[in-house]
Design a protein that fits this description.
abc type-2 transporter like fold; 2 domains; elongated; four-stranded mixed β-sheet; single chain; 4 strands; mainly alpha
Amino acid sequence: MMERIWIVFHKEVVDNLRDRKTVAGSLLYPLLGPFLMLLVFTVLGNTLATKSEEPLSLPVVGAEHAPALVQFLQQNGGSIQPGPADPEGEVKAGNQDVVLVIPPDYGEHFSSGQPAPVRLIADGSRQSASVSIRRAKGLLSQYSAQIGRLRLLVRGVDPAVVEALAIEETDVATPQSQAAMFLNILPYFIIFSVFIGGMYLVIDTIAGERERGSLEPLLTNPVARSEFILGKLAATIVFAVFSVVETVLGFYVMLNIMPTESFGVQVSMGLDAMALILLIAFPMLILASALQMIIATFTRSFKEAQNYLGLLPLIPALPGMVLFFLPLKVQLWMMLIPTFAQQLLINQVMRGETLDSLNVAVSATTTFVAGLVLVAIAIKMYEREQVLVGR
């Protein structure tokens, strides 16, 4: 039995390797995620680092109404520029990151001891302007606090009286957990690699062979249908494993050269963490490959199989997008959901958290059993003669 499975496995692997374009696509796609993240973080990191180091360029409308404030801004790293005629329009167009508007009644309010109004015009949706906005707000808050303390001292009041609490902040975040807010997207790309790695082989060896008319002669060989399926499944898993390993290694290289210091975090991901991610992802390989074989068996043509299997990775990968925007607290019942459980565990590894062995065991067992059930369904489908025509 093992010899016959090996023959089918060897045949499918060799046939797939002969299609150089397909193999090239399979090799390049797993690197797409690490490359995109490296590109985004490198460009964004360099932009933020440059703006953090250079003087804050701050256009001011009505600078003559608050000479003391303008002088304070200049003394604390601000490069004051003449304000534009249409500050809101300039900011919306992206020509200015932030514009400070000082109204004519600023001096009147300031002299009477009332809060003096100023208007800071900014576009919070523009990531490239975030550093300038944060620095401008910080300088204005600093100036406001300084003037407030001086006013209290003039009135004979200790400024400490208005500070009811002395807040001491203790940040227990690890470098990995600080960077996880940027790297929660990693499980998304790993799920894609799991389903994309062997997809082309499945399409060609099932839907493609049926369309070419070579499936029926293959099934007439003295090989049991179960052995036939297991050989194809093993070949699919091999390419899926290679795809996932390539993706994980790509992220490992990327995390060691990405300038995360520009964001105030530092990532340190070792090979042990990457190996753990591979172990967590392994049960999904059987489930994904078996599910793809079932769908490809159900379809009638190569094109139909390509359409269905091309959309399939989006379904299990959607929870990864949810984790990117809304990290969840891991609970035991979540480990019963194949692919979602693995994404939660991979996210924990990225954050440098200690995994619960029970969660790992339940997620692996559930996903593995679900994969075996799908394999049994695929074998059952191939025992029918309808497999020759699809559906």
